[in-house]
Fold this protein.
Amino acid sequence: MKFFKLGLFLLMLVFVMSLSPLAFADTYSNTINVFKKSDVTKPFFKNCYGYAVFPTVGKGGIGIGGAYGKGQVYKKGKVTGTVSLAKISIGFQLGGQAFSEIIFFQDKRSYTEFTSGDFEFDASASAVAITAGVQAKAGTEGATAGASAGPATGDYAKTNYSKGMVVFIHTKGGLMYEAAIGGQKFSFTPK
C-alpha cells in the first residue's frame, strides 16, 4: 500500500508539473529546432506530410504510472490544431521523466488518421531516443532493454515509418525504467 501511495503521488506530481508554466518554458519553435538539429530527424522534416510536437511530456510512476503533455499539429509547416497526450500504465516501471516528443506523418492518410479526433498507439509502438539514455521494458511481450548514446556517436539504427508514422523523443531529465509509447492516447482539436 505504501508503494501505491508513493506511485500515485509521483503520478500527480508529474501531471501538475506538465501543466505548470515552467513546463512550457520551451516554445514550440525551440523544441522543433532541437529535433531539426539531430541528424536522425533531419530527413523526416524534409519529406513528411506533417508532424505533431510536444515540448514537454511528464511521465512517472511506481507500478502504476502515467504521462501527460500538450502539443500542436502541423501540416506542411502550418499549425492545424492542438493535441493532448495521455497514458496510464500498470506494470514494471519506476521513476519520473520529462521529455519532448515529435511524431512525423508520412502522408495524408497517416495525418488524417491521427487528426480524426481520438487516436491511440497500439501496444507494440515504440519511440527512438535521440539523446543519451537507458531504457528497459517488461510486459506480456517479454523483457527488453537498450541504451542510446545519442547524437554524439553519429551511429543510428535505420529508422523508418511504421503504419505511416515515426516517433522520436528527446529526454529532458529524470530516469524512468519504462520506454514504450504503446497505449498513448491523443485527442486532437482543429484550429
Residues 2-190 form one domain.
